[in-house]
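ARCHIVE CARD
Drawer: 12
Card no.: 0347
Subject: one protein chain, sequence and derived structure
Cross-reference: see card 0346
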Amino acid sequence: MGQTLYQKIVRGHTVFEVDAQHVALYADLHIMNEYTSPQAFAGLAEKGLPVRCPEKQMGVVDHVIPTHPVPVGQRTIVIDAAAHQAANFTRNCQKHGIHLFDVTDPEQGIEHVVAPELGLIRPGMVVLCGDSHTTTYGALGALGFGIGTSEVEHVLATQTLIYRVARDMRIHVDGMLARGTTSKDLVLYIIARIGAQGARGFVVEYTGPAIEALSAEARMTLCNMTVEAGARGALIAPDATTLQYGGAHIKDLSGEALDDAKARWLALRSDDDAKFDVTHRFDASDVGPFVTWGTSPDQAIAINHRIPALSADETERHNASKALNYMGLDAGQSLDGLPIDHVFIGSCTNARIEDLRAIADIVRGHKVAPSVRAMVVPGSGRVRDQAEREGIAAALIDAGFEWRQPGCSMCLAMNDDILKPGERCASTTNRNFEGRQGRGARTHLMSPAMAAAAALAGRIVDIRKEIAHD
């Protein structure tokens, strides 16, 4: 029987089998941030252990860093606990010879934006990080997934992980996304269809014409949010799009070496007779602009639909009622026209140059509604610089957006970019949990285009209508 892409990557990185379900998995790259690494380094110190492969580690300060628009060299963390975390992280990286993108590094950014743009993510790799959205790297044919703090310590000490092998799921998407819809809408649609636990215990491989048509950065959005369906990983087989992205970003391979690598990467795919444990099929033509109405990413609807009626199932009814109460909404209500207070465009889901180009195209010649505070936080220093060179930053500033420095920012309330209780935010992030953007804050997930249109209108609108008007 043939093997899936996932099985091939795991087999190629298995140091030894632990038992029928677990293997010692070798990691090609381990990425760390300031909030999941302190206990791991402390554990090494207690045991007197060194970092086994410092050159295969990378550190990024991104979750607690402020994003105020000051020059890079002047960036400081003023929250005491956060400053202590970052300083401790810096000391540990320096001690063990680990490259760190620190607070004042011009290439600092969100870890899942920085790593691909530096050419560090390549097809067939296993990439680990103490952050659940490490699934992003599946867009380039790499197996990436998040690990816990105790596992971070184990990887630092051994460059391996005791890993429970997942099951295989294929999600095949036919057709093409219509104008006004994006990979963010597609993944929200899929999560809404299969549920927040619909891929639990699986690594998902995406296939089909709609997936093949996506850019590399759009694929990153798709794989990034697949974890919101409970997936343990996400993969897209390398193709011409993957090779083009790799060729543009990988700087230590060229000429014949790069050609040989590309040939190997193209061979990384599931065999025709490979067996998947579960297969879902969708059609991209069924996808419209999606917006979340509740407090879980699967509580989402197309903008031209209404919030569903409460289910007869007691558990589902309770969860939906609780979410609606928190969000200040009612079953049967439309989200089209719902007033908002804040717009946040950023995060490891949607803060790449492609995302910023899309919002600039929408806002040029327009102004942010007076009732709205709108922020754009680029995913990295490189993205920020490129946006300024292309005139994107100027267009956003002219429209009334705040143009910030890179960081996780308002994706989560771990820094000083926090919503006030009751504030309603149109957000390009990946999670809309209670309190995710601040205690009592109300988050509506959507695409960058939808968020930009909401900023101009002062309310959630259907981007397709706005495009038609233009």
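Annotation on reverse: The chain is about 35% helix and 15% strand. The two ends are 53 Å apart (CA to CA).
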